[in-house]
């Protein structure tokens, strides 16, 4: 891996729980296609499961350590051994990740539009689901996992992932520019109502809804709600003592009660329970 791509290193060790997470920028060839990687390792004596909340991106994780279990928002259980990987599309319900207390792996952060391109599947097929990568990409996923397990360093792992993703991208067609434009308007311009978005793209509202569902997995109104929810959880994760009423107003909820209802719908817990379960230092949300 060329030097200079390490953007942040999160490390935590309280004597019971310890983890390190190296955040790495994408190579030039993948800028705009993936957000980057997290090469991580952890040992937790205080908990073995996390609650993973809905957000607006796709997920690809390669397990490089002991077996882990992922429970999708649909309740389906996926067990992953060493060298196995999974992908996840958009979720409207929380998922769970479970380990025996030790984990090691690489997380690829990528937009749903890129996941759509890599898999060649309408993203509504992945709604609330986690799927083994080899079920979609076949032997190529198995080969990549084997090579990553055998890699001798983080740099070597990242170089392998770079090469695998660049090669896969080269084999696929980009999503249509108009679909990409529609997703951008829906996600980045909440000031525009959906009728205006449809008019700007030149589609009917129904066609807009169909195309957004194909590209990100859910309709445009639901997608905006998930993005707003992810924004509020990101803010509270960084500063977990907010003025909830003020935050609800700033983020675009009708009022604090509206924010609480969406926490219960998307996270299955209240905002105060969310704060109480934060592991801190990038450690996610502890599942009791």
TrEMBL record:
One of its GO terms (molecular function) is sequence-specific DNA binding. Keywords: DNA-binding, Transcription, Transcription regulation. Residues 172-277 form the HTH araC/xylS-type domain. The keyword Nuclease does not apply. It holds the Pfam family HTH_18. It comes from the Bacteria. Gene3D superfamilies: Homeodomain-like (1.10.10.60). Transmembrane segments: none annotated. The keyword Chaperone does not apply. InterPro entries: AraC_XylS_family_regulators, Homeodomain-like_sf, HTH_AraC. SMART domains: HTH_ARAC. This is AraC family transcriptional regulator.
């Amino acid at each position: 891996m060329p030097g200079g791509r390490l953007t942040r290193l999160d490390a935590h060790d309280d004597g019971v729980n310890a983890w390190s997470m190296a955040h790495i920028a994408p190579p030039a060839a993948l800028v705009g296609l993936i957000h980057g990687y997290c090469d991580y390792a952890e040992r937790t004596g205080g908990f073995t499961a996390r609650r993973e909340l809905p957000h607006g991106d796709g997920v690809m994780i390669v397990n490089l350590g002991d077996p882990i279990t992922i429970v999708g928002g649909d309740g389906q259980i996926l067990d992953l051994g060493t060298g196995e990987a999974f992908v996840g599309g958009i979720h409207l319900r929380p998922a769970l990740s479970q380990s025996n207390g030790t984990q090691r792996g690489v997380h690829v952060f990528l937009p749903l539009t890129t996941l759509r391109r890599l898999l060649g599947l309408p993203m509504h097929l992945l709604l609330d689901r986690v799927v083994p990568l080899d079920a979609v990409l076949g032997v190529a996923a198995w080969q990549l996992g084997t090579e990553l397990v055998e890699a001798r360093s983080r740099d070597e792992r990242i170089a392998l992932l770079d090469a695998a993703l660049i090669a896969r991208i080269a084999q696929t067609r980009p999503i249509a520019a108009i679909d990409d434009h529609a997703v951008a308007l829906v996600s980045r311009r909440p000031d525009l109502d959906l009728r205006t978005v449809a008019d700007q793209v030149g589609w009917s509202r129904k066609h807009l809804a169909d195309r957004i569902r194909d590209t990100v997995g859910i309709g445009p109104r639901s997608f905006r709600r998930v993005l707003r929810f992810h924004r509020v959880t990101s803010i509270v994760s960084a500063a977990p003592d907010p003025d909830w009423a003020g935050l609800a107003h700033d983020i675009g909820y009708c009022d604090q009660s509206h924010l609480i209802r969406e926490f219960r719908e998307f996270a299955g817990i209240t905002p105060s329970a969310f704060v109480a379960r934060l592991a801190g230092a990038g450690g996610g949300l502890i599942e009791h």
